[in-house]
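To assess whether the prediction recovers the assembly geometry, we first specified each molecular entity separately, as shown.
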Amino acid sequence: MKPFHIDVNSSQLSKSGNNVCGDVVLSRKVKDEQRTIITVSDGLGSGIKANVLATLTASMAMNFTVEKQPIERSAKTIMSTLPIDSRRQISYATFTIVDIDNGGETQIIEFDNPAFILFRKGKLLDIPKKDLSISLNDGSERKMLFSQFTLEMDDRIVMVSDGVTQSGIGTTQMPFGFGCDSLNRFLSEQIKEDNEISAHELSRKVIRKANENDIYKPQDDITCAVIHFRSPRRLLICSGPPYNESRDKQLAQMAKSFNGKKIICGGTTSLIISRELNVGIEVGMTLDNSGLPPKSKMKGFDLVTEGILTIGKVAEILEKLHGTEVYGSGPAVEIVKYMMESDEILLLVGTKINIAHQDPTLPVELEIRRNVMHKIANLLEDKFLKDVEIQFI
Amino acid sequence: MSKFNLYNTEMEKKVEVLVCYGTLCHLMGGSDLQLLGELLPLDLQGKVDLKGAPCLNFCNEVDNGKPPFAVVNGRKIEQATVKKLIQEIRVELEKK
Ligand code: FES
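The predicted structure of the complete assembly is given in tokenized form:
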């Protein structure tokens, strides 16, 4: 597993009266090359038209960057492809492209968006930028900014659309709008308050603040994207007894020495680990409305639950989940919450088949653990972009 | 804890009830047993030490009977229901 994790998250609000946002944020991990690319675009105007412009721009910028096209050519292509606004007779969308490799080597290209902000050790860092001019086919010139630097552990890059920096404009409190300086100050306060603040939480705070500046009627589309370069949060989920009892020790040792959060899903599994590590299990008696057996407590583990029913429920929740906010209660919900807070997840799956579970007279058909865990692994990887490793024991 | 309770525990030992919360027992009706603590008749309250277990390991042998399982003062109870467990608790209390 790798030493760094690039946490990317964004939040948005549409201009009051629109149900589509005219700003678009895309992010993609290019797995084979270990790069992370983020594009942010703000389309001219608001509503669906702006959204189309921004989507086109952000996705073209994304694809050209993935393909390592020279930026001048990409920018030219983007600008000449965008449809022309019939009223204003221009075609236009801003963009910012961030390209980070896993060592933290970063390149950023900016076109007409508010400047990105880099925080290092809670302080603002000024990055020298190079001018990059391109001449379009119609003879006009456009200026972009190029910067290059290496990210350090715990650095944060914040990008916003002008709906943030210009929020509040015309109000008595801030006739000239929020502005870059106040935004910077706001960000450093947030980071100072909570050094660990997640990309998701920070971006949410920014749009909430902008919305407040606009007196809860956004005057423009509001977007904030945050990139946090940090050490990975790791999670281990052990489920199922090993196919051979001689491996019980190994399972327990792996669980013990794992560095990160730890969950056990399975009664027998928890008994094995409890026996091998000589720690007691205390079964909780709390009732909730999840319909699942209650969770237990075991020293050294963050959560201990029943096995197959609970992980089945986890798979179901992951399948239905939109975004990363999990609602409800019960052991399965708790597991999903742990998953959403983690970057790297190791699923340690015991493959012993519980004969009793195959009894045809059971009121429900119990799925084979392995299959459920495979499903969970796929969902975590494809839908939630987690780094997942699955090991059978 | 009130004085009376303290007095109580010192005088007589509580009946130990271990309820299985494992997968099979849960599926076969054991989920209802989670309510045992709340459904205890007034006269039994304070006299039972109720605990849960991840899997009592009875489910792997057919000879053990049918889930859900519980253990009352060391005695295995198969096909446990709230009613049955209350009966068994009374049996234990009468032994004294
Ligand atoms: S699940 Fe109850 S004894 Fe195994």
